[in-house]
Amino acid sequence: MGTSTTALKGAGPVTGSRSFIAKLRDGDEIARLITLVFAASVVLITAALVLELWVNSALPRQKFGLHFFATSVWDPIMDQYGALPFIYGTMVTSAVALLIAVPLGIGAAIFLAELAPPRVSDTLQFFIDLLAAVPSVIYGLLGVFIVVPIMRTMIYPALNKPFGYLPIFKGPSYGVGFMTAGIVLAIMVIPYIISVSREVLLSVPRDQREAALALGSTRWESTWKVVVPFAKTGIMGSIFLALARALGETMAVTMVIGNTPKIAASLFAPGYSIAAVIANEFTEATGDLYLQSLIALGLVLFLLTFVLNGLARILIVVTTQKGSEVGG
Amino acid sequence: MMSGRLRWRKFVSNFMLAMTGVCAFVSVLVLFFILGYLVFNGGTSINWDFFTKLPKPVGEAGGGMSNAIVGSGKILLLASLFGVPIGFLGGIYLAEFSGKGMASVVRYAADLLNGVPSIVIGIFAYSLVVLPFKHFSAYAGAFALGMMMIPITLRSTEEFLKSVPRMLREGAMALGASKWKTIATVIVPAAYRGIMTAILLALARVAGETAPLLFTAFGNRFESHGWSQPTATLPVMIYTYAVSPYEDWHRQAWAAGLVLLGLVLIINILARTILSRGIAVPRS
User: Fold this and answer.
1) With A116 labelled, which of A74, A134, B94, B135 sits at a CA distance of 20 to 30 A?
2) How far are the Cα atoms of A116, A273, B91, B236 from residue B203, in angstroms, in the given order?
3) SS3 for A80?
4) Which B-chain residues 136-195 have CB contacts (< 8 A) with chain A?
């Protein structure tokens, strides 16, 4: 590395700002340039990613235009590609996931932030962090062998018998389908909702709670009518974050959704999602239009998560800053 | 005396608070449920062959996943060699050298990259590394996983470096050390444990990634020699075996699941407890 002379040189009395040459000799300028190259490469890689997706999805853009999103025929033999069934599947499974995960996640976050003593809260949060670290293929494995049978033998009869006249619970169940994928996704995104919502709730200033309690509200009223509304935007942020995760999740969904490109009203019907069709068909896609249609789906996924993540970040930052401002 | 209304409000309060406790309890229970199932199903099907033998042809029982274990190791090693230096040195740039404009561009790019679904990263690695060389390879898989390690390493290096007390910096400068010497000998060592924790967590995260490997490293039923052949990995094996119709493959998928989950959780627990003990949480 550097020689001892450079250290001695720097040890002398420093008069004014050093010249560029002197800085170069001390290694400062070299270090700056080297680290700059690595930092710039991050920007370069990200830009290349966006560019590749855009350029490599030009064919379906020219051929189908916006019809790509509005047609539901996906037929590699006839070279016809419409993204609607996949977009539908992604949206339905994500919606089911959020319907389950949001109440559970926010409830748990309230318990961790408001009720549990700090030690208990930290311990539980540790487990939640571990839960978030479980690989998605493991969720898929459990989904295939545990959730699918439970779905077929317990949840389907329980919902189909009394509510079978509703279109969403109609028809036969094969175990795999929108509902199964939604349940597995819900389990996967709950940790994200809990972690972020807990942080946001903890950033609500103490005097907000105390003021509510002093006015005679019960513990729950102070939590639900004062603390939660204060943290509302941040909690919305955690939900967007979870939604972005759910939309982009591949393996677990691929393993339990049934992989059938059909739009069905019934939640028990098998379907398909954007990420799942890419995972399944990418390696066997023959022909440029087929491959590029899959890449176009990837671009759609990228744009969706990009917007959601951006919104989530803004909402979370706004809320935590509000907390520190009011709290002074 | 409590009025009826107050009694009702107290009841609602206690009930709802109890419900939040149930939510938290159920959420944490899922972890133990997952662990229990994998230990039960994986534990009964794991054996020495799993670690030492190659997969048997379809229809023959037995065999193992030694090639996938080696393959995962190779790809993770290469991914770290690619992702960690970029993240680490880039993080040093952000914390120590950069002006405002450039820093916000880099940070924005990293946050964007962090949110990209892993399957999309796979598409990118495919068109950048697989297509030009015309075959699936360990390189391509490592490129995809390394890319996913960059943002985590970058942002946490920056945060931990920034949380090093000013006095250490000034002390070194006052002794006449140049800026890069201060960084290399004082600041980075002071932030070392935090950065290591973050790198380990990033490694644990990509160790379980499956989607970006499907069409980059692909898979292989045999030993892959060198780095430019299709390479088997544990997560992809779990996927292929779990969706296959063979009973014996399901058994091995559980075994592989147990090994993978054990690996990921152990790295997580070690990083979060031992390595990061006593580290102040960096300001957000």
Assistant:
1) A134
2) 32, 28, 17, 17
3) strand
4) 147, 150-151, 154, 175-181, 183-184
pTM assigned to the model: 0.91
Give CA torsion, residues A202, A206, A208, A213, to 10 deg. Answer: 110
Main-chain phi, psi angles of A18, to 5 degrees: -75, 150
- CA torsion angle A127 A131 A132 A138 (round to 10): 160
CA distance B220 to A309: 36
* Per-residue confidence in pLDDT tens, chain B, 284 aa: 568 889 999 999 999 999 999 999 999 999 999 999 999 999 988 888 889 989 988 878 888 899 999 999 999 999 999 999 999 999 999 999 988 888 999 999 999 999 999 999 999 999 999 989 888 999 999 999 999 999 999 999 999 999 899 899 899 989 988 888 899 999 999 998 889 999 999 999 999 999 999 999 988 888 888 888 999 999 999 999 999 999 889 999 999 999 999 999 999 999 888 776 655 443 33
As for the ipTM of the complex, it is 0.92
B43 near A CB under 8 A: no
Q: Nearest by CB to B179, which of A7, A28, A56?
A: A28
CB count within 10 Å of CB B273 equals 11
Q: Is B254 helix (H, G, I), strand (E, B) or coil?
A: helix
Give the C-alpha separation, A198 to A125, whole Å: 9
Residue B55 backbone dihedrals phi, psi, to 5 degrees: -60, 140
What string of DSSP letters covers B120-157? HHHHHHIIIIIHHHTS--HHHHHHHHHHHHHHHHHHHH
| Cα separation, B56 vs B201, whole angstroms | 34
For A237, what's the count of Cα atoms within 13 Å in the CB-facing half-sphere? 22
